[in-house]
């Protein structure tokens, strides 16, 4: 939306409505399967009205991913080099699990983008994400060298946290089909915390 004036309250509301509707559609159908018509219908807007705010499906998707990547990186940014190592890592695991509980659509949107080869966020993965992960890996390696946590491969440690916690969002239907009426998020925190405490507690 190219305008010199600040957007009005209605314009902000409509833009937010479009993004929320697009998140629902993209999470369900992926980028390729989603259409502008589906997003407009989900938003309760006409297609021309939607295109006033975003010129294309690509523009909507880019806006969602831009905001999502920043949100996704925040829990890792919070890993404090000055904190107690094991508690810092456990807190990171908890934050990631909580994100899967609160933002399942966002997790599936991100997963769909990665599965397709990350064509729209490749640069961000190679720069912003890599720089941050390398920085935190250096912190974890220092903790290991000091004997404050057990020695494991630091990159695979981070990958395992991502895969374990995001599984509950990306494979929610499968998890709930297997567990039945029990809410998986009631027991998952205790399980993942125990897992990483046993893995990382110094001998």
TrEMBL record:
Which residues are in the HTH tetR-type domain? Answer: 12-72
What lineage is this protein's organism placed in? Bacteria, Pseudomonadati, Pseudomonadota, Alphaproteobacteria, Rhodobacterales
What name does this protein carry? TetR family transcriptional regulator C-terminal domain-containing protein
Q: Which domain of life is it from?
A: Bacteria
Q: Which sequence ranges form a coiled-coil region, renumbered to this chain?
A: none
InterPro entries the record matches: Homeodomain-like_sf, HTH-type_TetR-like_transc_reg, HTH_TetR, Tet_transcr_reg_TetR-rel_C_sf, Tscrpt_reg_YcdC_C
Q: Which UniProt keywords apply?
A: DNA-binding
Organism annotation = Lutimaribacter marinistellae
Entries under Gene3D superfamilies matching the protein:
Homeodomain-like (1.10.10.60), Tetracycline Repressor, domain 2 (1.10.357.10)
User: Where the record puts its DNA-binding region(s)?
Assistant: 35-54
